[in-house]
Structures are given as C-alpha cells and as structure tokens.
Amino acid sequence: MLELLVEWYDGVELWLVQLVYPLQVALVLAVLVPLCWGVARVVDRAVDGLGARFTRVRGAEPPVGRDGETGRRGKTA
Question: Membrane-spanning regions, if any (predicted)?
C-alpha cells in the first residue's frame, strides 16, 4: 500500500515539475491556501475548546468570533 502511494506521489511530482513556473505557482496556491486555511481553522477551534474546558472560571464561553463575529460590538472602552 505504501509503495503505491509513493509511486502516485512521484507521478504527481513529476507532472508538477514539468509545468511552466506560473502554472506551478497557481496550482500550488490553489491547493495549499485552502488546505492551510482549513488546518488553521481546526487548530484554532481545538485550542479554543480546550481553553474553555480547562479554564478556572465556571461557565466560561469561548472567545468572541466563535459564531462568525470578528470584534466586540456594542462595548465601549
């Protein structure tokens, strides 16, 4: 099974290397940007969940932005 995966990866790598450079960059960005965004989102959710679970304050809520909010609305300094 691992040998089949290695052969597939070698084929994809060879195909990518033979493309012109601008197409390589566009293809890598089209794959890596969404992938990295997804991984960062999962890690962020996991850290928020663990932080809320292990906090010393009872009934603590996850940080602002959990439900799509990006800032503190309605609060003054």
Answer: 20-40
Single-letter code of the amino acid located at 68: G
CA 29 to chain CA centroid, Å, is 13
DSSP line for 6-56: HHHHHHHHHHHHTS-HHHHHHHHHHHHHHHHHHHHHHHHHHHHHHHHHS-S
CA distance 5 to 8: 5
Tokens of 18: 């033979």
pTM greater than 0.85 (yes/no): no
H helix or E strand, kind and range, residue 2: helix 2-17
Which amino acid is it at 69? E
